[in-house]
């Protein structure tokens, strides 16, 4: 059910709204730097009202900390052993997987409710992969989303999963930028 036929290895990295990826400035000083680099303040799509803004700051990248401005998230970051790091702490791919799973599950619940389907026993699993092409610094993200709707007939479950994928803000943000596979369990 992937919405982009190219694999993550075939697509160059792009940023939000399909703009080419630009590495962050080396003097990163916290949230808002992307807006400063791109000239986009507020980051909203035309016609959308901002309902909530999350702010986070990283120090040390994969070997540091990430914190939200409200202090509710404050995590040590370490590159996983698979990337030659020490492991033992969270990493950006885990954070993305957790955030995407939660957001997609909320969209699934909304869409299923519109169809009169109970999602009490539903779950959403995500897999986020960091991929590299060749030996260059050409990295992209690949994502798989697996929807579990155990009491729902498979055809209806597939319909609900597709609608949730179309509705989910994370799915929409990634569309065309990241290879997202959508599966039913």
Automatic annotation (TrEMBL):
Signal peptide: none annotated. Residues 1-30 are annotated as: Disordered. InterPro entries: KH_dom-like_a/b, OHR, OsmC/Ohr_fam, OsmC/Ohrsf. One of its GO terms (biological process) is response to oxidative stress. Transmembrane segments: none annotated. Residues 1-12 have a biased composition (Basic and acidic residues). SUPFAM superfamilies: OsmC-like. Belongs to the OsmC/Ohr family. This is Redox protein regulator of disulfide bond formation-like protein. It comes from Streptosporangium roseum (strain ATCC 12428 / DSM 43021 / JCM 3005 / KCTC 9067 / NCIMB 10171 / NRRL 2505 / NI 9100).
């Amino acid at each position: 059910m992937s919405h982009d036929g190219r694999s993550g290895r075939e697509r160059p990295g792009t940023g939000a709204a399909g703009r080419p990826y630009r590495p962050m400035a080396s003097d990163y000083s916290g949230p808002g730097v992307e807006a400063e680099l791109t000239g986009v303040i507020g980051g909203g799509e035309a016609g959308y009202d901002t309902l909530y803004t999350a702010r986070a700051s990283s120090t040390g990248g994969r070997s540091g900390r990430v914190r939200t401005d409200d202090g509710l998230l404050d995590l040590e970051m370490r590159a996983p052993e698979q990337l030659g790091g020490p492991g033992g702490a969270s990493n950006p791919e885990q954070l993305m997987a957790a955030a995407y799973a939660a957001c997609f599950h909320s969209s699934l619940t909304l869409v299923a409710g519109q169809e009169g389907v109970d999602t009490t026993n539903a779950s959403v699993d995500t897999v986020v992969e960091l991929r590299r092409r060749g030996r260059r610094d050409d990295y992209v993200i690949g994502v798989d989303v697996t929807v579990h709707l155990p009491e729902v007939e498979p055809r209806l479950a597939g319909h609900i999963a597709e609608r949730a994928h179309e509705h989910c803000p994370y799915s929409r943000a990634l569309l065309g930028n990241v290879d997202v596979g959508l599966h039913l369990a």
